Amino acid sequence: MVEVKLDRITKRFGNFEAVKELTLDIKDGEFLVLLGPSGCGKTTTLRMIAGLETPTEGRIYFGDRDVTYLPPKDRNISMVFQSYAVWPHMKVYDNIAFPLKVKKYPENEIKERVKWAAELLQIEELLDRYPAQLSGGQRQRVAVARAIVVEPDVLLMDEPLSNLDAKLRVAMRAEIKKLQTKLKVTTIYVTHDQVEAMTMGDRIAVMNQGRLLQVGPPTEVYLKPNSLFVATFIGAPEMNIVDATVVENDGLFLEGDGFKILLPDDFREILESYIGKDVLFGVRPEHMTVKGVSTLEHVTRTAEIEGIVDFIEALGTDTIVHAKVGGNIIKIKLPGHIPLPVGEKIKIEIDLDNIHVFDRDTEKAII
Ligand code: ATP
């Protein structure tokens, strides 16, 4: 186990900056998820931690050890890839034993360790098979067993579940998380799947265009996003965002197309400098409800706006109401099956302690 420190690392490929001045401390035993859209620099960051790429600038530390220029074999890391990368010509046993053989472990210890890893991943029955005789999920278990068998200081995973079907992905998600909790190995896990990030990470580091935007526990990143990008990247259906103006008129209001919301007094200090200015107003679908149909739980301060039902998405356990408010369509997530008629006028209640306001120019969160 080891703490990993990234100190202002930048990676340039020619003139292109794939990773820009990234600073991040990953704690000993932590499960950190690097989350972001395709091309944001997640894999490049992971490859620098692995030693497969060298940073153009900045330093990487494992504990107090500067590993910036150390080759992968001297870092005591293991990597699991999306493509499994198990060797087709070797039986499962030999695949798992391979890194131990490279490190010249004695034969009896190899046997013990392979048994230990195979039991943890529940693949003891498969040790005699070739990868071609395994399902995708089983192959990925072999890849994970091979990664942990050396008891690495740092476990690096790059979209390890992407090739599995949806159901298996959910099952493996829980298993990898449980395994990591048991082994307490410092783990850095790359994904573009926000649900994977939310459910697996002790903390999530959200990246976009080579930059680290926010890092924090899943609920913090979800409830207190620091920017428009983080707010809309995490959450499904995504956060509603509409144009609004901060207005002072015998009280402080957020006014936009088809709505005017009176804000509690404690918002004044934060929004003072935005009075008269255009902002972006955000609310998550589950932080609103339709009056008379459903209620918001544990909510103290609300505002009410009017809308017209435009479309109903019945998901079984939830209903997503698409409502027209002025010229905008907003989504409201209600628990259960709520068959509201299209065209019906509704009163929408908003939880004022879960609203978001973003600066239009910088797209940074004000509230
Ligand atoms: P994905 O989820 O699609 O793998 P990612 O967030 O992991 O995306 P990276 O693979 O880190 O993104 O790539 C970041 C950017 O750097 C991309 O624009 C990519 O094209 C570029 N890039 C990566 N490796 C190289 C390379 N060896 N040479 C030039 N450009 C590269």
UniProtKB/TrEMBL annotation:
E.C. numbers: 3.6.3.19
Gene Ontology terms: cellular component: ATP-binding cassette (ABC) transporter complex, substrate-binding subunit-containing
GO MF terms, alphabetically ordered: ABC-type transporter activity; ATP binding; ATP hydrolysis activity
SMART domains named in the record: AAA (SM00382)
Record bears the keyword DNA damage: no
Subcellular location: Cell membrane
Membrane topology per record: Peripheral membrane protein
Protein name from the UniProt record: ABC-type transport system, ATPase component, putative maltose/maltodextrin transporter (MalK)
Biological source species: Thermococcus gammatolerans (strain DSM 15229 / JCM 11827 / EJ3)
